[in-house]
């Protein structure tokens, strides 16, 4: 039975910053953070009929949800830790993303080459891939035949070299071929989920930062927030509050409640570097004694990822250092000498922080990628407050489903059944005017990096920036100084921290 019915039928044509609604209404849930976790929760909860508020202090999906390997994958390597549940969950979710967002998620064939590895290593990998196939038994249950993924197979050395000449090494034994999936734009996919949430009545706004929590008799009743564009503050009132602040979750909570929260996060830095295309068709998973790396064909380029190092600094200051690139390229050149990577090949680079559940081991590579829903009513005596931490892009939809189940239980209401696994996402193309008018783009970076994606291959040409910024200036009433400042502010995206 539907208990709350909200503005159906807007069809997601226009999203506006819902500042008025945020400051006047009382919501079932306030979500702090507009990365893929918060966005998926907003989409699920709104579709079930809950009254949803979401605030994001920057732009949507501008943090970890943009700075990753762009894979929708089962996590083959988690089999090594026997995390069968996580792998099965990821494989099921992979198929769901393929089904609900075929415009942005597509199959990606991988080769795992073996070099002088010996029979035992080959047999172990064959067993792992067989298990991966078994756990993804439903990978063909998709209407579109192009989305159906075949099982794994073995290619001889000659065959593997013929398909990907970069693998040409005298000690190549051959390669396993298997399939996963890739997002052509995580930023757009997250936005499409948000457009769906908005169309189902969620009140959302970017550039609104949550500060202290509203507390009454041990109950959390929302948060005080600041609209950073106008520097005004107001309260958002809600019966439950969910922290979905990614790598900032524990830091936000420590500030918001004025004491350390019960759950700590482990942060792990990973960099990616975009270079001119290195392979013809296949992605490569290269397993080494110091972890694995990916060589990923992506929109006519190759995305190299990733590193995995514990990060203890300020998450606001994470970035790529020259040394990160030099060490990463040296590592790849050692294992894939035909890559011949040099600094001038780097077209674009970025760093992200994995928000991992701290298991006490301090080992970020080995730490589980599972997600956790924390009820701070139990753990911190803050009734009505929850945190969703850890997890993967791939499993964010399912995490959201579990979060909303818990919120519905807490609210003591009846809501519609979750339908996010079957409801197709909108497929929208952003042009500059539409991005400003309908998609809450407020800065040049929002348009260039996350609405149109013209800046994700390296610095766009000056004429393009001139043209885009003039269109934005016309729509948003920018002065010439503001327009110049917006262009200048993009420079940081293409500099290492050494140049900052
Ligand atoms: C290097 C790397 C590679 C990865 N590769 C993959 C991959 O290939 N496939 C995969 O499935 N997963 C991958 N992941 C994991 C995946 O990217 C993350 O699990 C996911 O993006 C986390 O999303 P999130 O919404 O929890 O966090 P975020 O995207 O970081 O969102 C949190 C948001 O909270 C906002 N926020 C913080 N404080 C406040 C506040 N006070 N008020 C309002 N808003 C606030 C932040 O601005 C931010 O936008 C990778 C991660 C990394 C780092």
Structure, explained:
With 500 residues, the chain is α+β, with helices and mostly antiparallel strands. It is 31% helix and 25% strand. The protein contains 14 helices and 18 strands. It has helices at 19-24, 36-47, 84-100, 118-135, 157-163, 186-199, 249-257, 322-335, 376-379, 396-411, 432-438, 444-451, 462-476, 480-489, and strands at 26-32, 52-55, 71-72, 105-115, 153-156, 172-183, 203-205, 208-216, 219-227, 232-243, 265-276, 283-288, 291-298, 301-305, 309-310, 348-357, 371-375, 385-390. Strands 3, 4, 5, 6, 11, 12, 13, 14, 15 and 16 form a ten-stranded mixed beta sheet that branches. Strands 1, 2, 7, 8, 9, 10, 17 and 18 form an eight-stranded mixed beta sheet that branches. Helix 2 packs across helix 10 (396-411). The longest helix is centred in the N-terminal third of the chain and has 18 residues, at 118-135. It binds flavin-adenine dinucleotide.
Summarize, please:
With 500 residues, the protein is of the alpha+beta class. 31% of the residues lie in helices and 25% in strands. A hairpin with a 4-residue loop joins strand 9 and strand 10.
Give a short account of the largest sheet.
Answer: 10 strands, mixed
Taking the alpha carbons of the first and last residues, their distance comes to 55 Å
Q: Strand content of the residues, in percent?
A: 25-35%
What is the SS-derived class?
Answer: alpha+beta
SSE layout and pairings?
Layout: H1 19-24, E1 26-32, H2 36-47, E2 52-55, E3 71-72, H3 84-100, E4 105-115, H4 118-135, E5 153-156, H5 157-163, E6 172-183, H6 186-199, E7 203-205, E8 208-216, E9 219-227, E10 232-243, H7 249-257, E11 265-276, E12 283-288, E13 291-298, E14 301-305, E15 309-310, H8 322-335, E16 348-357, E17 371-375, H9 376-379, E18 385-390, H10 396-411, H11 432-438, H12 444-451, H13 462-476, H14 480-489
Parallel strand pairs: 1-2, 1-10, 2-7, 4-12, 10-18
Antiparallel strand pairs: 3-6, 4-6, 5-6, 8-9, 9-10, 11-14, 11-15, 11-16, 12-13, 13-14, 17-18
Helix pairs in contact: 2-6, 2-10, 11-13, 13-14
Bound molecules: flavin-adenine dinucleotide (FAD).
